[in-house]
Amino acid sequence: MILRHVARGKTNKNIAAELGISEQGVKVHISRLLERYGAENRVELVSLTGAWPEAQDAEYATLSGDIAGIRAGLNKTYQDASAFSEMHGGNGHGIAPAPRKTPNGHSNAGTDLGAEVRALREVLGEINIALKLARELPADADVGPLVDAIRTRVGAALEQSAKLDALVDRERTADRRSRQTAS
């Protein structure tokens, strides 16, 4: 609780008044936090503990926005693949097989969210390249297997993007709780 107030730039006196404790108690608590984290001052303490609520929330909002953009691109690519199949006389096969767990074969446990979003963006790029190459095939080519592969990859990427979006929300909530208990 105190750390959150420190992160918001409040003075010891203001913190003490808000929490209903003595100013000396606030000083002692902050001194112990500085010692525990090896920080030399309040700014370094807040930085080391990641207690900048606005910065963290902005980072999660950016990740959520990136994921939303990727999902929109994936949905458009899926529609483009379906339209491409119809242009080739409907020789694209029906519904895509069940999507894989993740587009890059990794599990979410203990991963860096930013890296996972970048990997998902790369998958979108790969899918778009495959669709572009498919468009260069002769009009009489059997594009069914290729369209199925693109749809499968898009389905897996959409599933992964939904999982990442949920993971971002869970991490954001966990960070907020962590900041509350650290304060």
Largest sheet: none
Helix and strand succession?
Answer: HHHHHHH
Mean pLDDT: 74
N-C termini distance: 3 Å
Low-confidence residue ranges: 91-110
Helix count, DSSP H or I runs of 4 or more residues:
7
By secondary-structure content and strand pairing, the structural class works out as mainly alpha
- Strand share of the residues? under 5%
- The outline comes out as rod-shaped
Question: How many DSSP E strands?
Answer: 0
Percent helix, as a range, is over 70%
- Using the CA coordinates, give the radius of gyration: 25 Å
Summarize the structure.
With 183 residues, the protein is an all-alpha fold.
What does this structure look like?
The chain is an all-alpha fold. The chain is built from seven helices and no strands. Helix 3 crosses helix 4 and helix 5 (53-87) packs parallel to helix 6 (113-135). It is rod-shaped and about 80 Å long.
